[in-house]
Specification:
Oligomer: single chain
Structural class: alpha+beta
Number of helices: 1
Distance between the termini: 29 Å
Helix content: 10-25%
Length: 81
Amino acid sequence: MSSHNLHHQLEQADVFVPISGTTTRPTIMYGAGAPSDGTSGTGAGLYHPGSLYIDTTGAKLYINTNTKASPTWTVVGAQTT
């Protein structure tokens, strides 16, 4: 399943409860290896700020701290393996 199709299915599933009427939905995704940043990076154009990415190889959690169009994936906390 492509990441775009997965994103669409998650949006339709209403698995997130928005607070204060926000219309953006964060997404949780995973993959082997660290995500890449920028307009051609992991989830560019698909994943809103606040979305999470789990690196199953490095056992790290990342959060998109930039925009949907150009995500910046920042490691959450001081994670070590």
